[in-house]
Design a protein that fits this description.
Distance between the termini: 14 Å
Family: Belongs to the EPSP synthase family.
Pathway: Metabolic intermediate biosynthesis; chorismate biosynthesis; chorismate from D-erythrose 4-phosphate and phosphoenolpyruvate: step 6/7
Bound molecules: shikimate-3-phosphate, phosphoenolpyruvate
Oligomer: single chain
CATH superfamily of the largest domain: Enolpyruvate transferase domain
Mean pLDDT: 96
Number of helices: 12
InterPro entries: Enolpyruvate_Tfrase_dom, Enolpyruvate_Tfrase_sf, EPSP_synthase, EPSP_synthase_CS, RNA3'P_cycl/enolpyr_Trfase_a/b
CATH architecture of the largest domain: Alpha-beta prism
Number of domains: 2
Radius of gyration: 21 Å
Protein name: 3-phosphoshikimate 1-carboxyvinyltransferase
Keywords: Amino-acid biosynthesis, Aromatic amino acid biosynthesis, Cytoplasm, Transferase
Length: 420
C-alpha cells in the first residue's frame, strides 16, 4: 500500500460550515470488540470505528478463534466461544495502545502462550507496570525491555485477589486489568497507587462497557474497584462517536468562525475528551493555563488552537504525552516552532504556546513532521486553515483513528495541493 508523502493545506478563506460526522470512538470500539470476543455468543457492535487501531484488535481476536463479520462500514458482528484460543503466531498490534495493553492482560485468560507485539513505536511505549501487576496475580508474563513484545503464558486462573497498579504512565493498564479480571476464577480488587492518573474518565468508559457485557464491577473506594468473576455475556452495543476526533471539528469551527454540525451535541459524549468542547468555545480567549490531564488526546488540538489565541497558554498535567504514539510535547513544540521560531517552549513537561492572532492570514511555509502520529497530523491541519504553506508529512497516519479525516475537511470546503 502506498502512503501519501505529504499534503499542503490551502486556507479556505471563509467560514467552514456544513455537516461533518466524527467516526465511532476508538476507545469504546476496542473495549467492545474485546468484551464481545470474550463473551459466549453473538454481539452486534454498531456505530463502530473501522481504522488501523480497531483492525488490529479485530485481527488479533480472529487469530484467537473469535469470528468477526463486518456487514458494513460501522458494524462488527462478533461471535465468541467464551474463551480465547492461543494464537498460532505473535499478535501484531501496530501502534495501537488500547489493543496492546488490553490484549496483554486478556492473554492471561488464554490457556497457552500469547506474544503481544507492535511496531517500532509501540516497542518504545512502556508496559512494565501492567506486567508487574499481572505477576502479582501469579500470571507468567515477561517483557524484557519493559515495552512490547510481551509474552504471556495464561491459564485463566489467578493466585491472588488483589492487584495494585500505578496508572501514572497510562490509564490503559488499569482498564486492561479491569476487563481481564471479570474473566478470572475469583473476585479481584484493583487498587490504584502512585500519582493521580490522567483521564480517569477512561476507567469509567471501561466499567460502563464491562457492565454492558454483563460484568459486575463496583467502585469500593475512590481508588479501588471490585470485579466479580462473572465472565461476559454477548450484547448488542452502540458505539458513540469519537470525542477526540470531534475536537478537530470543534476547533475548525471556532478558528474559521464557521458552523459545523457534528450531528451529535457536545454534552452527550461519555468520553473524557468531550470536556475540551467548553475550552475550545472560549477561543480566542483560552485560559492562561490548561490542565490537560483529564483530556489528554485533545491537547494537540488545543495547543495548535492556542497559537492563534489572544494570549499565551501554558499546558500542564501532560507529562504522559511523552509516551503516546510519539513524544507529543516535543512534536508540538517542534511543529509550532517550525511555523515560527519562538511560538512554543517546553518547560519541564509543560508546554507554553506563545499565541499570536496575527499568524492568521500569513504565508509561512512549514513542513510538519508528524512522527507517524495521527493527532499531530490532524491538529497541525488546523494551522493550515489559517496560515498558507502548512504541509503535513505522512498525512495517511490519520488512518490510526480517523481514516476519513482529509475527506471530511474537504467536504467542508478545504482544498489541498502538493498531494503526492
Ligand atoms: O483507554 C483508552 O481508550 C485511552 C486512554 C488514554 O491513554 P493512556 O491511558 O495511555 O493515557 C488515551 O490517550 C488513549 O488514546 C485511549
Ligand atoms: C494515545 C492514543 O492512542 P493509543 O494509546 O490508544 O495508541 C491516541 O489515540 O491519541
Amino acid at each position: 500500500m502506498t502512503r501519501t508523502a505529504k499534503l499542503t493545506i490551502t486556507p479556505p478563506g471563509k467560514p467552514l460550515s456544513g455537516r461533518a460526522m466524527p467516526p465511532g470512538s476508538k476507545s469504546i470500539t476496542n473495549r467492545a470488540l474485546l468484551l464481545a470476543g470474550l463473551a459466549k455468543g453473538t454481539s452486534r457492535l454498531t456505530g463502530a470505528l473501522k481504522s488501523d487501531d480497531t483492525r488490529y484488535m479485530a485481527e488479533a481476536l480472529r487469530a484467537m478463534g473469535v469470528s468477526i463479520d463486518e456487514p458494513d462500514d460501522t458494524t462488527f458482528v462478533v461471535t465468541g466461544s467464551g474463551r480465547l484460543q492461543p494464537p498460532k503466531a505473535p499478535l501484531f498490534l501496530g501502534n495501537a495502545g488500547t489493543a496492546t495493553r488490553f490484549l496483554t492482560a486478556a492473554a492471561a485468560l488464554v490457556d497457552g502462550t500469547v506474544i503481544v507485539d507492535g511496531d517500532e513505536h509501540m516497542r518504545k511505549r512502556p508496559i512494565g507496570p501492567l506486567v508487574e501487576a499481572m505477576r502479582t496475580l501469579g500470571i507468567d508474563v515477561t517483557a524484557e525491555t519493559g515495552c512490547p513484545p510481551v509474552t504471556v503464558k495464561g491459564t485463566g486462573r489467578f493466585q491472588a485477589d488483589r492487584i495494585r497498579i500505578d496508572g501514572g504512565l497510562s490509564s490503559q493498564y488499569v482498564s486492561a486489568l479491569l476487563m481481564m479480571a471479570a474473566g478470572g476464577d475469583r473476585p479481584v480488587d484493583i487498587e490504584l497507587v502512585g500519582e493521580d492518573i490522567g483521564a480517569l474518565g477512561y476507567i469509567d468508559l471501561t466499567t460502563a462497557a464491562m457492565k454492558a457485557f454483563g460484568a459486575k464491577v463496583d467502585k469500593t473506594s475512590p481508588v479501588t474497584w471490585r470485579v466479580e468473576p462473572t465472565g461476559y455475556c454477548a450484547a448488542d452495543f452502540i458505539v458513540e462517536p469519537d470525542a477526540s476526533a470531534a475536537t478537530y471539528l470543534w476547533a475548525a469551527e471556532v478558528l474559521t468562525d464557521g458552523a459545523i454540525d457534528l450531528g451529535v451535541p457536545s454534552d452527550t459524549f461519555s468520553q473524557p475528551d468531550a470536556r475540551a468542547y467548553d475550552v475550545i468555545a472560549t477561543f480566542p480567549h483560552l485560559p492562561a493555563e490548561i490542565d490537560g490531564s483529564q483530556m489528554q488526546d485533545a491537547v494537540p488540538t488545543l495547543a495548535v488552537l492556542a497559537a492563534f489565541n489572544e494570549t499565551p497558554v501554558r499546558f500542564v498535567g501532560i507529562a504522559n504525552l511523552r509516551v503516546k504514539e510519539c513524544d507529543r510535547i516535543r512534536a508540538l513544540s517542534t511543529g509550532l516552532n517550525n511555523i515560527r521560531e519562538g511560538l512554543a517552549v517546553e518547560e519541564g513537561d509543560d508546554l507554553i504556546v506563545h499565541s499570536d492572532p496575527a499568524l492568521a492570514g500569513q504565508t509561512l511555509p512549514a513542513e510538519i513532521d508528524t512522527f507517524a502520529d495521527h493527532r499531530i497530523a490532524m491538529s497541525f491541519a488546523l494551522a493550515g486553515l489559517k496560515i498558507d504553506g502548512i504541509t503535513i508529512l505522512d498525512p495517511d497516519c490519520v488512518g490510526k483513528t480517523f481514516p476519513a479525516y482529509w475527506r471530511t475537511l474537504a467536504a467542508l470546503g478545504v482544498t489541498y495541493r502538493d498531494k503526492d
